[in-house]
């Protein structure tokens, strides 16, 4: 498991090397969001109508009116008044909501599939709330009983006018009878006024009835959330984040060995050095053709993203010196000239190219002299990491393992080491190959002597990795 996979540089590498895949997944997520907006969350429009409750109201009484506004008694009457085909009161109850606001105001919200329907629904529920509240304030739900108090007030008003007419018709003189008649009429008028005042104080409908709808509901100009655009953006963002998190989880669970000490420990041998292989545009692309391979190349998933970008290397002369140093360390490590197998994991194109260059350098060694025993004879063998198998050690007396970093797990390398032991081969060393960005050279066929001498004197021939 890698412990260095959640840095910002890792996320930037994913964005650079997997941008095609991430873009395709984001588009797919946008399409899923669009489909959800059409099938699961069609556009809905919401608007509100306000109802004013005059007088003094306690909080619990306001909450009671809120419950009444969304009750079946009000919503069913609103559904009957609207007369929408195929829409019942039970369905409208899910589309109506109410809440108490400051100033004894109840806001009734209606949600529908069109702006006009939302406006009509909220206004109709508000009207039905006012009508229903007026009826129950009079102590009965009967419309005739609800108007009894108002009729009584009209009769009292008519009686007052009749008293005035009688007072005016009486003898305008100053006789005792006329004065007594006017006094009696005024007492009757005063008694009626006091009785109506007491009736108004005792009647709850006089104090808390008279609800008023405060104008028409505003026509909604936009859909209620989640809108279609919000669902599209949310789908694209969700798929993008899931793809990014998937890459990070895969990198976190990656068990491929990326450091030279880990590779050496898995194979149970020593590291002879590192060599450079010029990167090629198709060096890391798996072979294959057909629609699936074409799609993988189109999305950019045919190459690994978690490999660091290759560094810029020197010229061809510097790279060849690294190979010569590895061959020199092999020569100094072996007691006598020997023939070695160069084992390359099957599918490791970088290691295969490095092994070929090692063989070429070993064959280009001049004839052994008294001061040099000559480089070992090398033969490249590719083995499968699933079931590694090597030939018996009859002609070759050792193995040189060449592989690239970040490609193989410890279990796979241990299997190669066990296969070497089964074939009676000793792993004499390990060479790690890495890709570099090659620079154009003026003379790549033969390195100049000055460059060879300059690089050769930097350190001893034997020792650590080059």
UniProtKB/TrEMBL annotation:
Taxonomy, superkingdom: Bacteria
UniProt cross-references to InterPro entries, sorted A to Z: Bact_polysacc_biosynth/exp (IPR050445), LPS_length_determ_N (IPR003856)
Pfam families: Wzz
Keywords recorded for this protein, A-Z: Cell membrane, Membrane, Transmembrane, Transmembrane helix
GO cellular component, one term: plasma membrane
Positions of the Polysaccharide chain length determinant N-terminal domain: 4-68
Membrane topology term: Multi-pass membrane protein
Compartments it resides in: Cell membrane
Main location as per UniProt: membrane
Metal-binding found in the keyword field: no
TM region positions: 21-41, 229-250
Family: Belongs to the CpsC/CapA family.
PANTHER family referenced in this protein's UniProt entry, alphabetically: CAPSULAR EXOPOLYSACCHARIDE FAMILY, TYROSINE-PROTEIN KINASE
Protein name: Membrane-bound polysaccharide biosynthesis protein
């Amino acid at each position: 498991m890698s412990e260095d996979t959640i840095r910002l540089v890792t996320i930037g590498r994913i964005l650079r090397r997997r941008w095609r895949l991430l873009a395709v997944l984001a588009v797919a997520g946008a399409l899923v969001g669009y489909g959800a907006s059409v099938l699961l969350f069609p556009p809905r429009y919401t608007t509100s109508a306000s109802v004013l409750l005059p007088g003094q109201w306690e909080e619990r009484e306001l909450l009671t009116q809120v419950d009444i506004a969304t009750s079946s008694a009000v919503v069913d009457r609103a559904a009957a008044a609207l007369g929408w085909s195929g829409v019942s009161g039970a369905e409208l109850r899910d589309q109506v909501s109410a809440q108490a606001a400051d100033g004894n105001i109840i806001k009734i919200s209606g949600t529908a599939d069109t702006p006009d329907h939302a406006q009509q629904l909220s206004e109709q529920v508000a009207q039905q709330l006012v009508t229903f509240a007026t009826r129950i304030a009079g102590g009965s739900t009967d419309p005739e009983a609800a108007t009894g108090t108002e009729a009584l007030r009209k009769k009292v008003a008519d009686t007052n006018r009749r008293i005035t007419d009688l007072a005016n018709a009486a003898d305008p003189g100053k006789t005792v009878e006329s004065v007594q008649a006017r006094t009696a009429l005024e007492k009757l008028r005063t008694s009626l006024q006091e009785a109506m005042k007491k009736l108004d104080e005792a009647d709850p409908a006089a104090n808390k009835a008279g609800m008023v709808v405060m104008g028409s509901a505003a026509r909604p100009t936009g859909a209620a959330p989640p809108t279609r655009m919000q669902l599209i953006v949310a789908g694209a963002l969700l798929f993008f984040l899931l793809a990014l998190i998937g890459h990070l989880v895969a990198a976190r669970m990656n068990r491929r060995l990326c450091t030279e000490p880990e590779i050496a420990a898995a194979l149970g041998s020593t590291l002879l050095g590192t060599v450079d292989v010029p990167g090629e545009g198709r060096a890391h692309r798996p072979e294959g053709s057909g629609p699936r391979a074409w799609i993988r190349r189109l999305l950019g998933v045919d190459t690994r993203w978690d490999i660091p970008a290759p560094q810029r290397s020197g010229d061809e002369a510097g790279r060849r010196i690294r190979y010569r140093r590895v061959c020199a360390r092999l020569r100094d490590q072996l007691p006598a000239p020997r023939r070695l197998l160069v084992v390359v994991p099957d599918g490791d194109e970088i290691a295969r190219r490095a092994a070929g260059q090692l063989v070429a350098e070993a064959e280009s060694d001049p004839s052994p002299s008294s001061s040099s025993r000559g480089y070992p004879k090398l033969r490249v063998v590719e083995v499968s990491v699933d079931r590694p198998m090597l030939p018996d050690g009859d002609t070759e007396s050792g193995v040189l393992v060449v592989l690239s970093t970040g490609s193989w797990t410890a279990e796979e390398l241990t299997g190669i080491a066990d296969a070497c032991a089964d074939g009676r081969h000793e792993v004499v060393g390990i060479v790690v190959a890495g890709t570099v960005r090659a620079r154009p050279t003026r003379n790549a066929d033969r390195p100049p002597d000055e460059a060879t001498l300059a690089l050769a004197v930097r350190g001893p021939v034997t020792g650590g990795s080059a």
